[in-house]
Specification:
alpha/beta; Rossmann fold; 4 helices
């Protein structure tokens, strides 16, 4: 069934793992762009953006479903609830 994996080390194996995945859930990083480029459904948490323009410019785009969770309130409960709602939209 589903697994949660964290990865350290070279980028290529990280990208290959994402490409072979059925779902990517992560934060604003290169991983979200790999998932989008490979058509892997994804939910990404985007925090620390200084303006909506930055959020729009750097969010992933691809052929698969993409949900971006912009963090306006860093409360973990709120972020988790918004992430779970995004998962419902993607799945």
């Amino acid at each position: 069934e589903g697994q949660v994996r964290t990865r350290y080390g070279p980028f290529a194996p990280f990208a290959a793992t994402i490409a072979a995945s059925r779902l990517y859930v992560g934060y604003d990083s290169a991983g979200q762009h790999v998932a989008a480029a490979c058509g892997v459904p994804l939910v990404t948490v985007f925090a620390g953006f200084v303006s909506p323009r930055m959020l729009n410019r750097w969010q992933p785009s691809g052929t698969g479903p993409v949900a971006v969770v912009p963090v306006h309130d860093p409360d973990p409960g709120i972020v988790l609830a918004e992430t779970l709602r995004a998962l419902d939209r993607v799945l």
